Amino acid sequence: MEELLRTNDITLIPRARALLADEGIESFELDVNMSILEGSIGILPRRLMVRTAELARARAVLWENGVKFEG
């Protein structure tokens, strides 16, 4: 698994996951419980992971749909 994006924006990961799912790319969200523990004030970012083999395609899907991410 590779990190596709890391964000404090609580709306970005669901959007990215929906876009990826539409393309048949499985994703997995990490750090959900940590962000809940910190009280949802946005200090701790969440990470979205994809399979290594699908990383380039996943980045292209997000980029084509205007999703900003590092990398």
UniProtKB/TrEMBL annotation:
InterPro entries for this protein: DUF2007, N-reg_PII-like_a/b
SUPFAM superfamilies: GlnB-like (SSF54913)
Superkingdom per UniProt: Bacteria
Region forming the signal peptide: none
Domain DUF2007 residue range list: 1-64
Name of the protein this chain belongs to: Putative signal transducing protein
Organism: Roseivivax lentus
